[in-house]
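Worked Example 4.2. Consider the chain below.
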Amino acid sequence: MAVDFVWDNVVIGTSLAALIEAQKTNCPVLFNKEPAFFKFKKLDSGEYEHEKWQQIASDLSLRGLNPFGDKISSIRIKQNKIEVFCNNKKYAVGCENIKFFDEDNIENFPFSGVDVRNYRVYDWFRVISGANHDHRLLETTDQFVNKIYFFSKINLPKYKDCVSESTINKENLNRVDYTSTMARHKAIDVMTKAGILGTKHTKTYRYPIKMKLIERQIIKIKEEVIKQKDNYTLDTREFK
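Applying the procedure from the previous section yields the following structure tokens:
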């Protein structure tokens, strides 16, 4: 089978580390899944992770180093060749070296699977009562609802919605005590103890804090490894 592209080196992954590697080595990148980010996560440099990712992704696209963009549905690894599937179309890529940053949606992945250590869970809430305050961040000492980030409502910037951050292991992820409902109850408790008040009703009475779930965002925290096998490299370390 003839090949559509011939490259010496290829990066496979959608993490920030994958994009930085592609930019640094000036080689093409293949997106094997949707990138996963938390809007408020900052790097050690103080930059927001998703903003740095977008900046590098744009640079790679402008230089023609991300030819398939987000159109890839799956990837198959063959000897000295990669088959890239975009919906119903298949492309063949001849290559010498491949650097993997994760294994999702990759057939014939040359390494053993990467273990998921924990899950970082973000519960996004619309605050109905208790949205008017000066807090930007509240923290606890627990893994479940460890942080609560507050951000301005789009149409009412004086008022805030919020998102709670938790680290949950595989055994607890689907348990009742770790659901979005429990995260909402705990977040309300933390907010109340921090002095946040519900909407004023009369001179002497305020409604209790009330919130409604918008969505739950779950990001896998995978084992960080670096391995070498023939012309393949696996590097799952997180860029910080």
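The domain at 5-115+223-235 is CATH 3.50.50.60 (FAD/NAD(P)-binding domain). The chain is about 15% helix and 35% strand. Compare this with Example 4.1 before moving on.
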